Amino acid sequence: MEWSAKLSRADQPFGSWADDLAAAFVRLEPRKIADRPFEGSIARTDAASVQISLVKATGHCVLRLRPHIARSTDDLCFVNLQLEGLGRTTQRGHEQVCAPGDLAVADTTEPFEIANGRDFRLFCFAVPRRHLPKSFADSPRLALSRTENGRALSRTLAGYAELCLAAPAVAASSGTHVVELIAHAPEMLGEMPVARVNAPVLLSMMLDHIDRHSDDPGLDAELLARKFRCSERYVHRLFVATGRSVGEHVSDRRILICARDLLDAQHRHKTISTIAYEAGFSDISHFNRLFKRSHGLAPREFRRTKGKGE
Question: Which parts of the sequence belong to the HTH araC/xylS-type domain (predicted)?
């Protein structure tokens, strides 16, 4: 589902934005911050009980007022992941200032204000309050961008949001896991060992790290253990749940990237060895065996036949 609005008349500076916000989220009142023509858009998908939205807009603020709440049956928390711009969420006298990568929480059953002074982008996770810890929305401070573990969680959440919006068919199966990630965000900012973090959350962060760093030739279970401050044995235990080892996940990701590059006209000038090395492989014979096992063709044959659309 998508909505968009922009300045249409001088007496309607937000166009249909108030109605768009009500349709996508809950009733909110937009207010101007700067003298700039307004423009905004919302793309939303439902992931089980969670609604995931990408919001892009010029700077403004929105207020949740008591009259809105009196006429509403919504019982949600908005958990906003700032992507661009600087956001400020104020509720119960508590202020959360969010840089890119940070989370902010707003309880829709009480008044709040969310302000972005400049153009911004954010993911909004609308989560039923019953799915979150009771104290989750009490004076939250979720500046994930300040710690390595927090940044890893932020990237993982963004990855899930992007996947759900791009492929709504998989969104339904991802909602519960998104809630788990959000619910454990406060733990990621503490001093507790990462190995004590909820196992599915830690596994998601490791899988996200593999997706983003598969071109590192040294990426293996030992590196993940050092990165996430746990034992190598614990890493292997986590990956049992996926049905594949760390090495298999890494190799599969590299093979996927190599197959894409072999078919990409922009990489036509590169040798197969160069493509394999850039993807993270250090042994070409090993790469050739894995590629043929995955695609049924040697890399050279794959490039020659598939690259021609046969």
Answer: 204-305
